[in-house]
Amino acid sequence: LESNLVDCSGEIDQLYGFNEIKKIRHSDEFKAVIHPDDVASVYDKVRECLELNTPYEIEFRVPVIDGSIRWLKGVGKAFYSSSGTPEKLIGIVTDISKFKQYEEELKSAIHSRDDFMSVASHELRTPLTSLSLQLQMLDRMFSKNIHVDHDKASRV
Q1: pTM of the predicted protein model
Q2: Strand 86-95's sheet: what is its strand order?
Q3: Is the torsion defined by CA of 40, 34, 29, 3 positive or negative?
Q4: 3-state secondary structure (DSSP) of residue 61
Q5: How far apart, in whole angstroms, are the C-alpha atoms of residue 79 and residue 125?
Q6: Residues in the chain with pLDDT values less than 50
Q7: What's the pLDDT at 27?
């Protein structure tokens, strides 16, 4: 960790948008390819992992050359020397872009369902409120023995 050197597979380079010619070999190169809005949270998680000696799990975005955004999930842990100094960080990175896409579609579907239920509820409640008021009026009239024209009451 002190040297900030990185050793990763070709698949990792591809996930981060690098190719055979340009590869990630320094931790600063990781920082440069992470979406600017996610850099702080990624580094906070890694820092927490190193300080507390706990595994890390991070979801973050990587802008791709074609303009799209790739979602990645990193999972790993730190390994320490006998003196307790972190020596290396080992982990795996997985492309979770499809899961994020499905998650957004599901959120959108739930939002549409909730909107529909709200409108349907309102549309059903409006005539029911009117009917309820009319029934209350009839009930009061019958309970007070007020003469009711049964023809009018049946139309209500």
Answers
A1: 0.63
A2: 56-63, 69-80, 86-95
A3: positive
A4: strand
A5: 62
A6: 21
A7: 67
